[in-house]
């Protein structure tokens, strides 16, 4: 009877040890994946900041005025070119 109890306890200890090793291995894999995802998140945040800066630059009123004048040849109308249309 004592021998059976010892064998059962040894088997339980081996199974417990294998479970601990498996859990640690899974923890390490998940930690590596978390680190990769955090790095990707940081890269995306940096790119988002760059895109926001670029959008602010392109939508600035001075930039729009400059593009309208140089590329499209637009200009402000003179006083004689303004026509008021009334209903």
What are the SSEs and their pairings?
Layout: H1 2-58, H2 61-70
Main attributes of the structure:
single chain; 87 residues; mainly alpha; 2 helices; 77% helix; rod-shaped
Quaternary assembly = single chain
Number of strands: 0
Q: Measure the end-to-end span.
A: 109 Å
Amount of helix: over 70%
**pLDDT below 50 for ≥5 consecutive residues: which ranges?**
none
Largest sheet: none
Tally of individual helices? 2
Structural class: mainly alpha
Q: What's the order of the H and E elements?
A: HH
Mean pLDDT reading = 92
Function: Essential cell division protein. May link together the upstream cell division proteins, which are predominantly cytoplasmic, with the downstream cell division proteins, which are predominantly periplasmic.
GO biological process, one term: cell division
Subunit structure: Part of a complex composed of FtsB, FtsL and FtsQ.
Main location: membrane
